[in-house]
Specification:
Number of strands: 12
Strand content: 15-25%
Largest sheet: 10 strands, mixed
Structural class: alpha/beta
Oligomer: single chain
Order of helices and strands: EHEHHEHEHEEEHEHEHEHEEHHH
Radius of gyration: 20 Å
Shape: globular
CATH architecture of the largest domain: 3-Layer(aba) Sandwich
Low-confidence stretches: none
Length: 347
């Protein structure tokens, strides 16, 4: 066996795309799988989006592959009712996942799918490293009469550990980190910049520059190829990673990884559960395949196998196969056809 993988298919199209990804993983290695429930499926079965037993199984694994969670079935305005998204938050907290990595590299056969001109998107190969467990999303919040507040708090330790992730991955890429903040206005951003500068001294081979978040948002559209690693805090990273995701033209192509310390990471496609097409066989599995490739590389250290999966995905697209979300039109293929095309090209 090459590793123990917990499969969390989740809701909507999740079971279809995770099932397809398992077949791709089986084409490059032998793994010990543990299939568990999360999100709405877990609410239906156990009354909670993430049980202690599932979290313990994830802790004992080498990596976790997640499909998607959520759907209108579990939408509610009751603040005490369980919600599928609580499963994701529980995983992040329970596994200590503080770093979210989103690669953005348009695949050559899909270059025309980008909303940007080909000459603007050409050469883009960036990675957003987002701090995942601090900042305004986790600060004190509330309402006092007609006043509402959300508190943004960061500690040196939180900034230190995410900065080291950014510098380390940049060292394995082209060696450039762009730290994004709002240090001209926000005090937590000033602490962020001071800490990143201090950590940079430990990585002399990596070039560091700083960019204010509003300028970064503009530069991502004007010239995305200038970036290598974008290092930023939670809310800025949430916004910038979604903006950068659309550079490729389809959320159906984007993988992600959430990593922590010595424990397993969670690897998942960026897109949602797409309940409107669940069960129709039309779901695009490619983002899940690319997430599986990140799992192989960053979770299990299997570089050659990860490259084989990525090459097979590009090969299938180069052969002209397109799912409906990729503009396949009347000739679009479904989940099964795309999976078979990728499996044929895994070498």
């Amino acid at each position: 066996m090459s590793g123990r993988i917990v499969l969390l298919a989740g809701d909507g199209i999740g079971p279809e795309i995770v099932g397809a990804a398992r077949r791709v993983l089986d084409a490059v290695g032998e793994f010990d799988y543990d299939e568990r429930l999360v999100g709405g499926a877990s609410i239906d079965a156990d009354g909670t989006a993430l049980t202690d037993e599932v979290l313990d199984a994830c802790r004992a694994s080498d990596a976790v592959l997640l499909g998607a969670v959520g759907g209108p079935k579990w939408d509610t305005t009751d603040p005490d009712a369980p919600r599928p998204e609580q499963g994701l938050l529980g995983l992040r907290k329970g596994l200590g996942l503080f770093a979210n990595l989103r690669p953005v590299k348009p695949i050559a056969p899909l270059i025309d799918a980008s909303p940007l001109r080909p000459e603007v998107i050409a050469g883009t190969d960036l990675l957003v490293v987002r701090e995942l467990t601090g900042g305004i999303y986790f600060g004190n919040r509330g309402r006092e009469g007609e006043r509402a507040f959300d508190t943004c708090v960061y500690t040196v330790a939180e900034i230190d550990r995410i900065a080291r992730v950014g510098f380390e991955v940049a060292g394995r890429r082209t060696g450039r980190v762009t730290s994004v903040d709002k240090a001209n206005v926000i005090e937590t951003s000033r602490l962020w910049r001071e800490t990143v500068i201090r950590i940079a001294a430990d990585y002399p081979e990596v070039e560091l520059d700083h960019m204010l978040v509003d300028n970064a948002a503009m530069q991502l559209v004007a010239g995305p190829s200038r970036f290598d690693v974008i290092l930023t805090e939670n809310m800025f990273g949430d916004i910038l990673s979604d903006e950068s995701a659309m550079l490729t033209g389809s959320l159906g192509m984007l993988p992600s990884a959430s990593l922590g310390g010595d424990g397993p990471g969670v690897f998942e496609p960026v897109h949602g559960s797409a309940p409107d097409i669940a069960g129709t066989g039309a779901a695009n599995p490619l983002a899940t395949f690319l997430s599986a490739a990140m799992l192989l590389r960053d979770g299990l250290g299997m570089e050659a196998e990860a490259s084989a999966v990525e090459g097979a995905v590009e090969g299938a697209l180069a052969a002209g196969l397109r799912t409906p979300d990729l503009g396949g039109g009347t000739g679009a293929v479904g989940t099964e056809e795309m999976t078979e095309a990728v499996l044929e090209r895994v070498v």
